[in-house]
């Protein structure tokens, strides 16, 4: 039996779950906006109380490492690393785009996971259903939504779109004829998916020491870009 804590803070929604092997014991989703640091730790404490699981009982910590919002990712990854070190347990890192795609593994078509990157851009990756869930068929990328739409249209495949980047760039995606929107339920990374995927990796001992885990940013932060422009 493996008890693990799963958290993702790549989007404005904070997702936290506690699982026993691949079974979710409890989960919570909160709209953090820009308050990830204020929301995450109390959410973990509340969930531990709700499930009756104490932090010292955990066998692993799992975290969505992005790509996503710079501040949110930093909060989630740092928290996971600190907890892993304090509890002396491994940390399992999973792409937040994988966590958007995994719940749609039975869709029977190509899955495009699309998260809002702001500045009219999106973080995205494409997947196909595979024997163990979903199979990544592109790199994790960031760029204008229009470029992704052009790529999907040229592929000529039936596609299911998921992630908040679809909503924030609605006009661009409406031109796709062979695509369907998975809807609001699939707009953010799933804590349940993180429990399921992390439990498999723990069973295969595919994890890292806490100091090895790093956010997947894909681009510089808004502050860094602004500083570069001023220079």
Q: What does this molecule look like?
A:
This protein is α/β, with parallel strands linked by helices. It has 2 domains: 3-96 and 189-230, 2-Layer Sandwich (Nucleotidyltransferase, domain 5); 97-186, Nucleotidyltransferase, domain 5. Helix content is 35%, strand content 29%. The protein has 8 helices and 11 strands. It has helices at residues 36-51, 70-87, 96-101, 145-155, 164-168, 170-173, 191-203, 222-230, and strands at 3-8, 13-20, 23-31, 60-64, 91-94, 110-118, 121-130, 133-136, 141-144, 159-162, 179-181. Strands 6, 7, 8, 9, 10 and 11 form a 6-stranded mixed beta sheet that branches. A 5-stranded mixed beta sheet has the order 3-2-1-4-5, with helices on both faces. A hairpin with a 2-residue loop joins strand 6 (110-118) and strand 7. The longest helix is centred in the middle third of the chain and has 18 residues, at 70-87. The N and C termini lie far apart (54 Å). Residues 223-231 have low confidence and may be disordered.
Summarize the structure.
The protein is α/β, with parallel strands linked by helices and 231 residues long. Helices cover 35% and strands 29% of the residues.
């Amino acid at each position: 039996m493996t008890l693990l804590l799963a958290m993702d803070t790549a989007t404005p929604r904070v997702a936290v779950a506690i699982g026993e092997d691949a079974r979710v014991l409890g989960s919570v989703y909160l709209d953090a906006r820009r308050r990830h640091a204020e929301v995450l730790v109390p959410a973990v404490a509340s969930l531990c109380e709700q499930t009756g699981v104490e932090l010292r009982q955990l066998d692993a910590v799992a975290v969505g490492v992005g790509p996503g919002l710079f501040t949110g990712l930093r909060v989630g990854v740092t928290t996971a690393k600190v907890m892993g070190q304090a509890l002396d347990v491994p940390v399992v890192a999973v792409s937040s785009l994988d966590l958007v795609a995994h719940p749609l593994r039975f869709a029977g078509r190509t899955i495009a996971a699309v998260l809002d990157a702001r500045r009219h851009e999106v973080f995205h990756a494409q997947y196909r259903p595979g024997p163990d869930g979903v199979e990544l068929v592109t790199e994790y990328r960031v760029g204008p939504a229009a470029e992704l739409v052009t790529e999907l249209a040229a592929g000529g495949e039936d596609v299911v779109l998921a992630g908040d980047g679809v909503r924030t760039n609605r006009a661009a995606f409406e031109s796709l004829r062979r695509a369907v929107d998975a809807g609001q339920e699939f707009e953010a990374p799933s804590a349940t998916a993180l429990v399921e995927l992390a439990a498999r990796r723990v069973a295969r001992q595919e994890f890292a020491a806490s100091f090895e885990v790093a956010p997947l940013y894909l681009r510089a932060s808004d502050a860094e870009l602004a500083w570069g422009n001023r220079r």
